[in-house]
Amino acid sequence: MGRVVVVGSANVDLVLPVPRLPRPGETVLGGPLEQYFGGKGANQAVAARRAGATVALAARFGRDDFGRRYRAFLRRAGIDLSASSTAAGASTGVALIAVDKAGRNQIAVAAGANATLEEAHIERAERILRRADVLLCQLEVPLAAVEAALRAARAFGVRTILNPAPARPLPRRLFKYVDLLTPNEGEAASLTNLPAGTVGEARRAAKALLALGCRCVCVTLGARGALVVGPDGAERIPAFKVKAVDTTGCGDAFNGALAAAWAKGRPLPEAVRWGVASGSLAATVRGAQPSLPRGGAIARLLAGRP
Question: Does domain 3-9+38-90+114-303 match CATH 3.40.1190.20?
């Protein structure tokens, strides 16, 4: 069983089904309101755990009811929280999510305790990080903490994955600590100032990201699967045909399952296939964490592939 350490956010997701996504300044009636545990860090930790990895999460929670219930849920899920902590005076992060009938979403996030994750918290997590096979990070927590985690993992010989979501400018020095960068099309375009809407454009953007210093890039392409680009070439991993009801959490399902498979010793293209299968399954269930599939379901989907 591979060991994955996730450094990232924990949010409570408040999800509102709507007939269509609102335009600027418009009110759209929807409902009923649904509540789920979310946040990219915790989502990816749960996804990796369900895919079969041993998982530790370094995150910050508020000293509130959301935080207490969330920590209890994660412990029941089998996730090590010894590297996580409570932020006095800050609320647990909250995400407000509108989802339309086609499964498309709009998301706004109040960072809360996530914004208090600091380099000192990463230093206290180094005991766990030293024993990891893979470190997985995202960008819903302060960049200094992400960089500290990536730098420490590289020093310990731990493979690193950075999911650059949500998109933000990144210092060039950060890329040299990244073994695998996993942007979606929009994030790849934002990081490179190049279009990435087609497979050919995504390949060119990925090559530009390689030139910045990361060792390999995997651009997720939604219903078209994923494109893995490394120094030796590119490989397209097709997606699976599913009936999408909610795309919230699909990227987290992809990254968590990929990290788990890679930590367990699968070659990178095979690990990416696990991620694509997990993301495809996640689109068939509403809510972020309820949609994250277990390893058995991922394996069955892979086995039934034409």
Answer: yes
